[in-house]
Design a protein that fits this description.
The complex is a heterodimer of chains A (428) and B (313). Chain A is an alpha/beta fold and 428 residues long. Chain A contains 13 helices and 18 strands.
Chain lengths: 428, 313
């Protein structure tokens, strides 16, 4: 059994219970034992959190841990530790591994690997269709029994609306939410960056925003028709954000996430032809960035998820049309999200909602709260800590970040998962 | 000349925006001097003796590769050609490794032709010698734009404030992008003409006028540049047939009647006779197509000379 920990005098922010006050948090036997003022240590290890924020650990609904199959990019162990470093106590890993997580044995493999790691919890997301081919349903019931928390063909859109319709209906029997990568593959074929003024000038093949808009709208319509939930991954366009906003107003069970790069960068970053700015969905226009920010502020967008997509350095040094899509995100998510707080877009409680409370709710995951009896998944972060992004210092094997050299404010200091300290570099 | 040389030595030529209008005029003046070399019986000057130029071509090319090769050889440089079929690229070596290995053999300049936009820019960051963009995807083809400017300049005596039309597959054309940038640097008004499917979404960002009517495009223009149409675009569903394309966008003698009597007709080649340009127009009195090719050698001699710093050796 892990030792008891008393976190003292931190600014405790727990939107699940409307708490934002300087208090103590006592962790014991792997769960939150008490939250209140002047709690007695009674022999517990004490952590001085004065001047720091104590919040339920962050939960990332969208990461790629690459194992099995692409261990040179990332492993479950390195990804889980990178998550812990970033303040995440749980991550949901996408199914596009090799083999694909479209059956219970791959799910069990991932969970066995994860159990041996002293980092963030790892929740596998199962494939919607066999081999991510978008044709036949994967063995969803078997995977549910093995431990998947949601279903997605992420990286690919389920292009056949009939297949998606059946997937939503079938998954409902197991209480699983469908997570859609909204992208009409015909409209983006061969595309590298957002289609628009910058791609016109650079002569780079474009991926139009409408490829995301039309599928988001289609998926919302299908979900509304079936009265089933759908979660839209990495929302990036003004059109998709507006569709979600309208659907929510009508009571459709649609949720969505946004990635930090989609509210931090625009398509102009591609002017240097840097493959670290190549991702899918691509970096969009300033109008899209503004729409994503507004969505995060007004509740249209439910959570921040990183789409952490580690690649080997040499892969990102390939020609831009051959380099793979995606960037790492676990260790820069807090700092980039804190920019929105510092801009005055919203306060820290909303930030914790976006990074912890809401993601826990969307997939019904443990954590996301400091309620007594809840798993002791906690992070302590310093909102004022100024640091410079240096990918060489990432715990993740992936160093592919367009944010190298950025000065950010806000860094995670300590991470507790299930009552055990898994990250505490400055020995608080 | 002295100051022009010093400003260029050791630099890269990746896109027109790397140059100022003054520098372009410097290149033009240098190219005129070298044009004579190609007219002599002994077509060689010792200017770049002892210099090594590597043509690294990842795409098939006759004109550009030969042009750079002849340019280098007429300046007495050692010119080595590497194309994808004969290098270790076919063994799966990355672009980065190929560039680093060539760079390790200490060339003075590498000319990079590549299907991927930005590949020459990447090579420039790691090569440690001058890198010249010999065409990268649909991004840029700066030496083509420079030789086109020279061709116009020779005929008109100026490249200032021209009215120009570029007709054809603008979407996929690096020649169009570099020429638009170069012409506009000298105050040109540029009109592009193509079916909407062969124009980039966001074409306004190029700072050009747009028309789908070739008669309107050529009317009142100093220069009309035609672009090659590739059958591949038909397979991509961007237009229905070459027949229908040429019905609307072929520069025929009839269309040419809408043009000014002193219009210059250009084409970067290779031309499709009867598709984007009628045979009699290509061979006709307004056509500068072969003059462009001749100027290509002179302009590339100027570029190699100035970038490789031949004056000092």
């Amino acid at each position: 059994m892990s030792e008891a920990i008393l976190i003292q005098n931190g600014r405790v922010i727990d939107p699940s219970r409307g708490i934002d006050a300087v208090q103590d948090v006592l962790v014991k036997d792997g769960v939150i034992a008490a939250v209140g003022k002047n709690l007695a240590a009674n022999g517990a290890k004490t952590v001085d959190a004065k001047g720091l924020v104590v919040s339920p650990g962050f939960i990332d609904l969208h990461v790629h841990l690459r194992e099995p199959g692409f261990e040179y990019k990332e492993t479950i162990a390195t990804g889980s530790m990178a998550a812990a470093a970033g303040g995440f106590t749980a991550v949901c890993c996408m199914a596009n591994t090799k083999p694909v997580n479209d059956n219970a044995s791959v799910t069990r493999f991932i969970l066995e690997k994860a159990a041996a790691v002293n980092g963030a919890r790892v929740h596998p997301i199962g494939a919607i269709t066999k081999g991510l081919k978008g044709e036949e349903l994967a063995e969803i019931g078997e995977m549910k029994k093995a431990g998947v928390v949601a279903l997605s063909d992420d990286g690919r859109c389920v292009m056949d609306a009939r297949v998606l319709r059946h997937a939503m209906d079938y998954a409902a029997m197991f209480g699983l939410t469908i997570v859609e990568h909204c992208e009409d593959e015909h409209l983006v074929k061969g595309g590298i960056m957002n289609e628009g003024e910058t791609s016109a000038r650079l002569g780079i093949k474009g991926m139009p925003a409408i490829a995301e808009d039309v599928i988001a709208r289609r998926d919302i319509d299908i979900a509304a028709y079936l009265k089933r939930p759908v979660h839209i991954a990495h929302i990036s366009t003004l059109g998709a954000v507006e569709s979600v906003r309208a659907a929510k107003a009508l009571g459709t069970a649609v949720t969505c996430e946004a990635a930090p790069h989609h509210f931090s960068l625009t398509e102009k970053s591609l002017e240097t032809f840097d493959a670290n700015c190549k991702m899918n969905p691509p970096l969009r226009t300033a109008d899209d960035v503004a729409a994503v920010k507004e969505g995060l502020r007004d509740g249209t967008i439910d959570c921040i998820a990183t789409d952490h997509a580690p690649h080997a350095t040499w892969e990102k040094e390939l020609e831009i049309d051959q380099a793979p899509y995606g960037i790492v995100g676990l260790e820069t998510a807090l700092g980039l999200s804190m920019r929105l707080v510092r801009e005055g877009l919203f306060g820290l409680p909303r930030l914790v909602e976006l990074l912890s409370t809401n993601p826990a709710r969307i997939f019904s995951l443990p954590g996301g709260t400091l309620k007594e009896g809840a798993p002791a998944d906690v992070c302590i972060f310093d909102t004022e800590k100024k640091w410079t992004v240096d990918p060489a210092e990432f715990v993740s094997l992936g160093k592919n970040s367009p944010f190298a050299g950025w000065e950010l404010f806000g860094k995670n200091c300590l991470t507790i998962v299930g009552g055990r300290i898994v990250y505490n570099p400055s020995n608080l | 000349m002295e100051t022009v040389e010093k400003k260029f030595r050791g630099r890269h030529l990746l896109q027109i925006a790397d140059l100022t209008a003054d520098e372009i005029m410097g290149l033009l003046n240098t190219a005129y001097k070298f044009k004579d070399v190609s007219e002599r019986e002994i077509k060689k000057v010792p200017t770049l003796r002892g210099k090594t130029i590597v043509n690294l071509f990842y795409e098939p090319s006759t004109r550009t590769r030969t042009s750079f090769e002849i340019a280098g050889k007429r300046l007495s440089a050692d010119v080595i050609n590497i194309s994808t079929s004969s290098s270790s690229v076919s063994k799966g070596e990355t672009f980065k490794d190929t560039v680093l290995n060539i760079a390790a053999m200490k060339p003075d300049a590498i000319v990079v032709r590549h299907g991927s936009p930005g590949a020459p820019a990447y090579a420039a960051r790691i090569a440690g010698c001058s890198v010249i963009n010999g065409g990268d995807g649909a991004n840029a083809h700066p030496t083509q734009a420079l030789l086109d400017l020279m061709t116009i300049h020779e005929k008109k005596g100026t490249v200032e404030n021209l009215k120009a039309a570029i007709v054809g597959d603008i979407l996929h054309s690096r020649v169009a992008r570099s020429n638009i940038n170069a012409l506009k640097m000298f105050g040109a008004e540029v009109t592009v003409c193509a079916p909407p499917t062969l124009l980039p979404h966001g074409v306004k960002a190029l700072g050009v006028k747009v028309t789908h009517d070739i008669r309107e495009a050529v009317a009142d223009k100093d220069v009309v540049m035609m672009l090659r149409i590739q059958t591949e675009r038909m397979q991509q569903g961007l237009f229905p047939s070459l027949r229908e394309y040429s019905e609307h966008f072929c520069l025929s003698a009839k269309v040419l009647k809408s043009a000014r009597p002193d219009v210059l007709i250009m084409h970067p080649g290779p031309i499709n006779r009867g598709v984007e340009i009628a045979s009699d127009v290509a061979d006709g009195p307004y056509s500068l197509i072969l003059s462009q090719v001749t100027h290509g050698v002179a302009m590339r001699m100027a570029v190699l000379y100035l970038l490789c710093g031949g004056a000092e050796s």
